[in-house]
Amino acid sequence: MISLEMDQYVDTAIPINGAHRFDNVDYDPILDEVYWIDGSTKSIMRASRKGGEAVEIVSSLGKLEGLAMDWIGRKLYFTDSYYGVIEVIDIVRKDRSVIIRTDFGYPQDIAINLYNRTLYWIEADTVAMQAVIRRSNLDGSNIENVTHQMGMWPKRLSVTVIDGSPVIYWTDSKFKTIFEYHESTQDTLVVAIGSALPKSVTYLDGFLYFSDVKSNSIYQISVNDGNKELISRNLANLLNIKAFDKRIEEN
Predict the structure, then answer these.
(1) Contacts for 182 with CB less than 8 Å, ≥ 6 apart
(2) How far, in Å, are 21, 122, 128, 235 from residue 111 at the CA level?
(3) 95: helix, strand or coil
(4) For the segment 90-131, what is each residue's pLDDT rounded down to a tens digit?
(5) Which of 6, 89, 139, 195 is a good FRET partner for 74, with 20 to 30 A between their CA atoms?
(6) What angle do CA 208, 213, 214 make, to 5 degrees?
(7) Residue 41 burial by Cβ neighbours in a 10 Å radius (0-12, 13-18, 19+)
(8) Which residues lie closer than 8 Å to 20 by C-beta, 6 or more apart?
(9) Average pLDDT over residues 38-45
(10) Is the distance from CB of 125 to CB of 131 less than 8 angstroms?
(11) DSSP secondary-structure letter at 249?
(12) For residues 185 and 205, is the Cβ–Cβ distance under 8 A?
């Protein structure tokens, strides 16, 4: 695992004992801890951002795909595509429960809009080759389809709020690009990324950050003018990225 400080673009390897694979990752700013899915052990692990011992939080017999930290509510949400469920675990009380059993397809990546306390996830029907992005309340109630464009194949998901309205970004495996969806206008836009092959995407403070599996690099794109900048390269086996603003916790 690598920590990249955005003010100086300096990356630092985080030494974590007991970690094998980082398939998906999120961050808890309250305790300064990183959570990740370890696909090799079918588990969700936790460790200090400074490094140290990895601690198992969730074990599964299925296939863990996405996770999202609600650091305000102290809960961790995750998807299991084998059992077709979305689960939540209270990281304080250790209570774990299924809140959604998917009916369209297999749940994939997941994200939380902390501003309006809603849950977003990708649900894919691998037989019909269709995928939809859905949302619900954090308790799994009031499920709605957000997008359902034929032919698109969302892979990784990021949700933010711009000018008071939710905006969804996702990498698309079929079109090999990044899409941008505005809920207020229901407009779907293509983010200009050049010849890159995006795998993961995350939003922070007016910029998109995405991993390019073709060059094992991370790029930054301004959502205002579309200017693209290379911020880190030569990152072998780059799987997932997550951007976080420390000022959010302070406020």
Answers:
(1) 162, 165, 167, 189
(2) 20, 9, 24, 24
(3) coil
(4) 999 999 999 999 988 899 999 999 989 999 999 988 776 788
(5) 6
(6) 115
(7) middle
(8) 38, 40, 41
(9) 92
(10) yes
(11) H
(12) no
Adjacency order of strands within the sheet including 228-232:
198-204, 207-212, 217-222, 228-232
Determine contact, residues 123/106, Cβ cutoff 8 Å.
yes
Burial of 244 (0-12, 13-18, 19+ CB in 10 A): middle
* pLDDT digits 0-9 by tens, 43-98: 999 999 888 999 999 998 899 999 999 999 999 999 999 999 999 999 999 999 99
Q: In the structure, what pLDDT confidence band is assigned to residue 16 with cuts at 50, 70 and 90? A: confident
Contacts 24+ apart (CB under 8 A), 206-210: 207/243, 208/158, 208/169, 208/178, 209/241, 209/243, 210/171, 210/178, 210/241
Residue 57 host element (H or E): strand 55-59
Query: What gap in Å lies between CA 177 and CA 170, rounded to an integer?
Result: 9
Beta bridge partners of 70: 75
Q: How many of the other CB atoms lie within 10 Å of CB of 118?
A: 18
Whether 237 contacts 23, CB under 8 Å: no
Q: What is the C-alpha to C-alpha distance for residues 16 and 22, in angstroms, rounded to an integer?
A: 11
Sign of the Cα torsion 43, 26, 109, 78 reads: positive
Would the pLDDT of 175 be above 80? yes
The single residue listed with the structure tokens 């010849």 is 195
Q: What percent of the chain has pLDDT over 70?
A: 92
Residue 4 reports pLDDT greater than 90: no
In our burial notation (b when 16+ CB lie closer than 10 A, e otherwise), range 167-183 reads: bbbbbbbeeebbbbbeb
Q: What is the Cα 48 distance to its own chain's centre?
A: 19
